[in-house]
Specification:
heterodimer, A: alpha/beta, Rossmann fold, 8 strands, globular, B: alpha/beta, Alpha-Beta Plaits, Pectate Lyase C-like, 2 domains, 6-stranded mixed sheet, 15 strands
């Protein structure tokens, strides 16, 4: 059974591609699948940091492509989740070091040994993006509920469709339900009205994401975090399962339910 | 490594494309090539494509003189550097091919759009898409912000128009723009530019046209003409 390549891209920088890659990879590995996360952001690598594996880098993606090592030598196995691997980007090179066909060949080799390959695309629409897009079987677009991010996502969707990579799916990341309620932030419906692609996940804003990044521990492994739960659900949906979307307003609802308990006399 | 020199025949004359490399070397390569093909090129209008190079007026002027000595007319410069463009314009050189052409022809009177086939596009135009056509254009789908439509004739959008449109782009002031939801980032008809006022009303079909001296948008009404 050949592995599936999922490329996580966005156009806009800073919307959460690397976080999504690390967490989707971790969640899939936790579900028992053999996963390889690939950092395609040559020169500006972060996936290794977010996954807490930067101290263990010996070989990277460019070493593999340029023949200095075999692919398995570049795969760093996560000690916490043995099914999870990382092939890091090179930091001392730039995106011209790889070509789209290099990536296709590399992923063809990887398909034989893992179930899922999750590629962290760099921001932009230039060479790095095309490198990450070339081997994709499925493309996931990450955006924030914010006009400039949505504008860039629209551009990227146009390019993905033009490259005939099939309809991409969408993650809306860093949603702040209170701001949406006040009308200060775009609601998911507003984003979908413009982008018109299938939604695969809505991830709430959660300051614990930054904490987990600093610790190099993907938040999907944290049972208490709502953002973590959202990423776990996204992983399940990518694996083909039907999972209902989380109610993001629940924080408020929980408090109201509590106050009803506490009030004397009841009902 | 010598920068490459490519010569292509175009409507306006001869387009010479200089490959990457230092300007000094590129210029040497250019002059070498021009001298080598002197008989073929003689009397031609030369348009030079220099890429991102920033060239000052003195350099361009000297190049014009050198080419003139070889019997060539230095006519235009294409460059992505705004400095080069400005300097070229100061010397009277063209910086866009179509622009150079227009200055020699009469401005279009009656809409030439009716002589050309109209274009029908049946999909949503996403950000970054540019649609250009000398005739009328109809889009069945949305036009997202960041998408551009440039038509010699009218533009009709059967959907939400949120991008940039330019109708009557070759000078026809009778061109119109219609949309089911007219909310463009910018709307241009012939030489005029207009921005829609921000309104939080329900989207309804509108037609924009030049009335008097302004671009106005009128709601579609069942009884209207």
């Amino acid at each position: 059974m050949a592995g599936l390549v999922v490329t996580i891209t966005s156009g806009k920088g800073g919307v959460g591609k690397t976080t999504a890659t690390a967490n989707i990879g971790a969640a899939m590995a936790q579900n028992g699948w053999k996963v390889a996360c690939l950092d395609a952001d040559i020169g500006l690598r972060n996936l290794d940091v977010v996954m807490g594996l930067e101290n263990r880098i010996v070989y990277d993606l460019v070493d593999v492509v340029e023949g200095r090592c075999r692919i398995r030598q570049a795969m760093i196995r996560d000690k916490r989740l043995p099914e999870l691997h990382l092939i890091p980007a090179a930091q001392t090179r730039d995106k011209s070091a790889l070509s789209p066909s290099d990536m296709v060949r590399l992923c063809d080799e990887l398909r034989e040994i893992v179930d899922y390959i999750v590629i962290d695309s760099p921001a932009g629409i230039e060479r790095g993006f095309h490198n990450a897009l070339a081997p994709a079987d499925h493309v996931v677009i990450v955006t924030n509920p914010e006009v400039s991010a949505v504008r860039d996502a629209d551009r990227i969707i146009g390019i993905v469709e033009a490259e005939e990579k099939g309809p991409p799916t969408l993650i809306i990341n860093r949603v702040n339900p209170a701001m949406v309620k006040r009308g200060d932030m775009l609601a998911a419906e507003d984003v979908l009205e413009l982008l018109a692609i299938e939604l695969i996940g809505v991830v709430p804003e959660d300051e614990n994401v930054i904490v987990s990044t600093n610790r190099g521990m993907p938040i999907a492994l944290d049972g208490k975090s709502r953002a973590g739960e959202a990423f776990r659900n996204i992983a399940l949906r990518l694996e083909g399962k039907q999972v209902p979307f989380m109610e993001l307003d629940d924080e408020r609802g929980l408090l109201q339910r509590f106050s009803r308990f506490i009030r004397p006399g009841g009902a | 490594m010598r920068p490459s020199v490519q010569i292509k025949g175009i409507r306006e004359g001869l387009l010479i494309i200089l490959g990457e490399g230092e300007w000094q070397q590129a210029q040497e390569a250019l002059l070498e090539e021009v001298e080598r093909q002197a008989d073929f090129l003689r009397g031609g209008n030369i348009i030079l494509e220099v890429g991102e190079r920033a060239l000052n007026a003195a350099t361009l002027g000297k190049l014009r003189d050198t080419l003139s000595d070889l019997g060539l007319s230095f006519w235009g410069v294409l460059s992505t550097s705004p400095n080069t463009e400005q300097n070229a314009q100061a010397l009277g050189l063209a910086t866009r091919i179509h622009q150079a052409e227009r200055s020699e022809t009469e401005p279009a009177q009656e809409s030439a759009a009716n002589d050309v086939e109209a274009l029908l596009v049946r999909r949503t135009l996403r950000s970054g898409t540019r649609l250009e056509h000398p005739g009328h254009i109809t889009v069945v789908g949305d036009v997202n912000p960041g998408a551009e439509i440039i038509a010699g004739g009218d533009i009709v959008v059967w959907g939400r128009l949120r991008g940039m449109v330019h109708a009557g782009a070759e000078g026809d002031e009778s061109a119109v723009v219609c949309a089911l939801d007219l909310s463009p980032t910018q709307l241009r008809i012939a030489g005029r530019i207009a921005i829609s006022p921000k309104q939080n009303r329900k989207p309804q079909p509108e037609m924009a046209a030049i009335r008097g001296n302004q671009v106005v948008a009128e709601n579609w009404t069942p009884s209207g003409k």
